[in-house]
Design goal:
With about 210 residues, the protein is an alpha+beta fold. It has one domain (about 20-205). The protein has helices spanning about 40-65, 70-90, 110-125, 160-165, 170-180; strands at about 20, 25-30, 95-100, 135-140, 145-155, 195-205. A six-stranded antiparallel sheet has the order 1-2-4-5-6-3, sandwiched between helices. The longest helix has 29 residues, at about 40-65.
Length: about 210
């Protein structure tokens, strides 16, 4: 089994329909039971939740002790380290992607991740519970290796608005911090309950 190289993470994305077929590809909003056993399904969810939990704890600590400006630094410096460590420990690629990106070099969704975000938007519009928004896909990479692709939706919570709300509501000092750290930032203008992005996991299959 080959080992994946972990990706880095972009700006902060945390707080706390059908089936698509193509050759070598299988995607749906529930795990493909014919391919995944219960242990693999559960361990994938645990990996995604662990990334969100660890980053959420660091963000909460920074916000409590030093305020939102410190949280910006956590997103830029600490979150990539968390993702890299968890990716290595789990022989997977774990990261987060956004519907609007704070750092274009990191966190920009690729093809299947954009597909997942589009499905999430459609399901939210149809009234689905945000907590149930998952995406599963089994496909082949460019070398013919089968891999599991999983995404879990991240929704905007009240605390997210400190850095991701209306630009006019972000304090000047914080806005300047964001501008300096992320000069190409597009990740503002969100409101509570909107889709912010997803935590995504890619792992090789036997």
């Amino acid at each position: 089994m080959r080992h994946f190289q972990p990706y880095k993470l972009a700006g902060c994305l945390v707080v706390f329909f059908g089936v698509i077929f193509s050759p070598g590809s299988y995607a749906q909003n529930t795990p493909p039971a014919a391919v995944l056993d219960a242990a693999l399904e559960q361990s994938t969810r645990v990996m995604a939740n662990e990334l969100l939990t660890q980053l959420g704890q660091r963000l909460k600590s920074a916000l409590t002790s030093d305020g939102a400006e410190a949280a910006v630094s956590v997103c830029k410096e600490v979150s990539p380290a968390i993702a890299k460590r968890l990716s290595t420990e789990n022989n997977a690629v774990m990261t987060r992607v956004g519907t609007r990106v704070r750092n274009p070099a990191m966190g920009t969704p690729n093809g299947w991740q954009q597909e997942a975000l589009s499905q999430f938007e459609s399901r939210l519009s149809a009234g689905d519970n945000p907590a149930t928004l998952e995406y599963w896909k089994v496909a082949e990479d460019t070398k013919g290796q089968r891999e599991l692709r999983y995404a879990k939706a991240i929704m905007v919570q009240p605390v997210c608005l400190s850095c991701h709300g209306s630009a006019s509501d972000i304090p000047a000092s914080l806005a300047e911090k964001i501008r300096l750290e992320y000069p190409q930032d597009r990740a503002t203008g969100y409101s509570v309950g909107k889709l912010r992005g997803a935590v995504v996991v890619t792992r090789p299959l036997p």
